[in-house]
Structure prediction request, 153 residues.
Amino acid sequence: MSESPSSSAANANPPGSERSRVVKAAGIVGGSTFLSRIFGFIRDMVIAGFFGAGVATDAFFVAFRIPNLLRSLLAEGSLTIAFVPVFTEYLKTRSREEALKLASVSFTLLSMVLAVITLAGILLAPWIVRLIAWGFSSDPGRFGLTVYLTRLM
Prediction:
């Protein structure tokens, strides 16, 4: 007697398999991203409710936009799309140790690149703020606060 299609599909990816763990991890990342969006929306509503429209709120939102853009590009964008398939392929075709070595090397390199980007962002904050919010340079108080907050974030 042959197996039914559903039971053979279940045997193809048993609960403890690498593939099921990768799928579970991808689901966790996707769910976390969704929750992040909701909490970000709530954060913006709370800030607007407490502070309203003004210099401090404007400076905060402009300063926050810069690192948030980098996070979107690196954490949720091309880096994720590029890394996950390669890592999954390593898990399938090579040893677990080689896959973990790939992850370690990748994240070490990423950390070094991000450290350089962070330092550049701190040093170049006045010019970055002028580029992102060119109208702020006419108001020294707003511009200075935005540069300060950009360096903090």
